[in-house]
UniProtKB/TrEMBL annotation:
InterPro entries: Cro/C1-type_HTH, IrrE_HExxH, Lambda_DNA-bd_dom_sf, Rad_response_metalloprotease, Toxin_antidote_HigA
Domain of life: Bacteria
Molecular function as annotated in GO: DNA binding
Boundaries of every HTH cro/C1-type domain copy: 19-73
Name of the protein described by the UniProt record: HTH cro/C1-type domain-containing protein
Family under the similarity heading: Belongs to the short-chain fatty acyl-CoA assimilation regulator (ScfR) family.
NCBIfam families associated with the record: antidote_HigA (TIGR02607)
Length: 371
């Protein structure tokens, strides 16, 4: 026959419990014990309910009545008080950490190396203060949080998403300040947008376009998404310059080009009217605003989606690698972008030609990557 040890939770038993057990064994009442100890029933009740410490004098009286040592009662009370204080400290620490974690996934932020902090209650609150430049008790910036940015997201069931997303956008703003660029030139950015498709065809197109963006006064950085944010990219105005952020949530070259095109469209079309907000995009979500529909349409225009679709129509459903190469050379557009657009429009199965959709982070210069 086998035996199994069962783990039981620790119960912090105070001296009052032991007094009650002794009274029960002796058949006495609390009034009897109070009379024997020459103290009031109210005083004894405080002791039995562990609301007052057992003094040396009280310990001697209990020892005399129950035929124990005074040290027994002093030690019992001391151990109870120590454990109670530790429980209270742990509870307070847990409460402080939980309060901050409602607004930001602290351990994840620390793990990403964005900020240096300890995984303690003080560390949690210190990180919160560093990010928001206020005390941990001030959560006013999260009031009506969804009104503070323009989000394309279809996850409406978690409050955490909105809070974590806003925290991410604040961190993105902080990190963008470390990138130095010249004055913003809308004219240069428009020129880049008109030629964006051609960069996708170049072997070093990713590096080239990012350098050109900097020349145009656009800050670009890679900042990975936080859990429950579902972000592909973002753009916002910081100081006198627009900022474009890529999360590499889907680390694929086609995702990079479409996200970049989408955010450039926002910068040119919408940011001038929304300088106090951020556009935060989950590109797998449905287009849920006029601005998002416009950005999608313009992004496809930048990448010549109509020409891609027209060129591939004769091969719909059976586009071979050689035909893909022919279209790519003819339009001077990268094969990954062609595959991505055709898959999005249902002309190529999502299981086909994915070998061309290679990782993009290896192609992005390290000085653009925050982590």
């Amino acid at each position: 026959m086998s035996t199994q040890n069962t783990l039981r939770p620790f119960i912090n038993i105070g001296p009052g419990h032991t007094i009650k057990k002794n009274l029960e064994a002796m058949g006495w009442t609390q009034e009897d014990l109070a009379a024997m100890m020459d103290i009031s029933v109210k005083q004894l009740s405080q002791i039995v309910n562990n609301k007052t410490r057992i003094t040396i004098e009280t310990a001697r009286l209990l020892a005399a009545v129950f035929e124990t040592s005074a040290e027994f009662w002093v030690n019992l009370d001391t151990r109870y008080r120590i454990n109670k204080d530790e429980d209270s400290t742990r509870e307070t620490s847990a409460q402080r950490k939980a309060r901050i974690r409602k607004y930001m996934p602290v351990n994840e932020i620390i793990k990403k190396g964005w900020f240096i902090s300890e995984a303690t209650a003080d560390g949690y609150e210190g990180l919160y203060s560093e990010i928001w430049q206020t005390t941990p008790d001030d959560q006013s910036m999260y009031d009506h949080v969804k009104d503070r940015y323009c989000a394309r997201q279809n996850r409406e069931n978690e409050e955490y998403t909105a809070r974590y997303t806003y925290t991410w956008s604040k961190i993105a703003r902080i990190k963008s300040q470390g990138f130095s660029v010249p004055d913003y030139s809308r004219e240069k950015l428009e020129q880049i947008s008109r030629q964006l498709y051609s960069y996708t065809y170049m072997e070093d197109g990713v590096t080239r376009v990012l350098r050109e963006l900097n020349t145009a006064g656009v800050r670009f950085l890679v900042l990975s998404h936080l859990s429950k944010t579902y972000l592909d990219g973002a753009c916002f105005w910081e100081g006198d310059n627009p900022v474009i952020v890529y999360t590499a949530r889907y680390d694929r070259i086609d995702n990079f080009w479409f996200t970049l095109a989408h955010e450039i469209a926002h910068v040119l079309l919408h940011l001038p009217r929304f300088k106090d907000k951020s556009f935060l995009d989950d590109l797998k979500a449905d287009e849920n605003s006029t601005e998002e529909q416009e950005a999608d349409a313009v992004a496809e225009k930048y990448l010549k989606a109509d020409q891609i679709i027209s060129s591939a129509k004769p091969y719909a459903g059976y586009l071979s690698a050689s035909r893909l190469q022919t279209i790519s050379d003819k339009l001077e557009i990268g094969k990954a972008v062609i595959v991505g657009i055709l898959q999005h429009h249902g002309m190529v199965d999502y299981r086909k030609l994915n070998a061309y959709k290679k990782p993009v982070t290896d192609l992005i210069p390290s000085d653009f990557i925050v982590g």
